[in-house]
Each structure stands twice: as structure tokens, then as C-alpha cells.
Specification:
With 189 residues, the protein is α+β, with helices and mostly antiparallel strands. Helices cover 44% and strands 20% of the residues. The strands form three sheets. The protein has a three-stranded antiparallel beta sheet with strand order 3-2-7.
Length: 189
């Protein structure tokens, strides 16, 4: 003859079942890393229009997205960069609002700094720490050298920072300025 289960036994069984169910739903470290990797990949993509906008704004945003993708595909293409910047300025002139929620900067193309002969002779290697002003018009503004290497490398790092192509951050459906920390590395090969 079986004994009836006590209320405590039933509670213990239910708690065990609940714990097993919850632990099966908790993301593992590997799952979190996979999601973070996908998020980083998507961060460089300019999203489709997801907020209400006029047909003209929708067309402008679509053209801007395509131009941005072409900049990413052909990183040093002057024609692609110029088209992207023209579309960004067209939106500014026509007071178009980005039809996407708030988002941070999207770097489309980053130039590598040039190594100088003086630095090569002196075998200087390391990184230059910068603070780069990202302007809402798509251009880099002021670049501050926080820690440099001299031998012309600081100037080359600043020059490379000025060649960055990016979509400015969006806040409240407007492109906004942003100060971005950045490092430029120099190594002897």
C-alpha cells in the first residue's frame, strides 16, 4: 500500500521541476557570446526605416542605406564615399529625420594610418590614443591626441581619423554630434 504524498513532498517535486525548467531556459555563456557576436555584426548595418516617415524620407533613407553598404563593400572608393555624404547632406538640407530609433555611430570605413620613415628608422611602435569629434553632418571635426608617439605618427593618426566614413549617431530622430575614443596602432613589419 502506497503512502499519500505530504504537502512538503509535493512542494519539493514542484520546486525541482520549476528549477529544471528555469535552468533549461537560462542562456549559457556560449549563447550570450553568440548573441553578442551577431549584435556586433548587425551594429554595422544601417537598419531599414522602422518609424513613420514621408515617402520622400523613406526613399532618401533607402538610398542612404544602399550607399552606406557600398562604402562598406568598397572601403576606399571615393565615388561611394561622395555619394553617401551627398545623400547625408541632402537629408540635412531637406530637414529629413532618420526613420529609425536612437542608435550609436556606425563606422562604415576606417582608414589605416601611414607609418613614417622617421618612426621606421627609430623602430617606434605602439598606439596613439585619440578623442574624435563625430559631427552630425558626416564629417570628423576636432581630433585630440590624448597620448602620442611623436615621429610624425601622431599627425598621421589624426589624418587617418579625418578619413573615417560613418553614419552619425541618431537621437530623437536627429543626427547628433558625438566624441568617440579611438586608438591607432603602429607596428613594424
Amino acid at each position: 500500500m502506497s503512502r499519500p504524498l505530504s504537502i512538503y513532498s509535493i512542494l519539493i517535486v514542484l520546486i525541482c521541476l520549476w528549477t529544471i525548467n528555469v535552468s533549461a531556459q537560462l542562456p549559457t555563456e556560449s549563447d550570450r557570446a553568440r548573441r553578442a557576436a551577431l549584435s556586433m555584426l548587425r551594429h554595422n548595418e544601417i537598419p531599414e526605416a522602422s518609424l513613420d516617415c514621408s515617402p520622400e524620407e523613406a526613399k532618401w533613407w533607402s538610398d542612404l542605406r544602399i550607399a552606406a553598404m557600398r562604402v562598406q563593400e568598397n572601403r576606399w572608393g571615393k565615388k561611394e564615399k561622395d555619394r553617401f555624404l551627398r545623400l547625408l547632406h541632402e537629408g540635412e538640407q531637406k530637414s529629413y529625420q532618420p526613420p529609425v530609433p536612437n542608435r550609436s555611430i556606425t563606422v562604415l570605413s576606417r582608414a589605416e594610418p601611414r607609418y613614417t620613415e622617421e618612426a621606421r628608422r627609430k623602430k617606434i611602435k605602439g598606439s596613439v590614443a585619440l578623442v574624435v569629434e563625430i559631427r552630425p553632418d558626416g564629417y570628423v571635426g576636432e581630433v585630440e591626441v590624448v597620448q602620442g608617439l611623436d615621429a610624425g605618427l601622431d599627425e598621421n593618426a589624426v589624418e587617418a581619423a579625418h578619413r573615417i566614413v560613418f553614419l552619425p549617431p541618431v537621437k530623437d530622430r536627429k543626427f547628433v554630434a558625438f566624441r568617440m575614443p579611438m586608438t591607432m596602432s603602429f607596428n613594424i613589419y
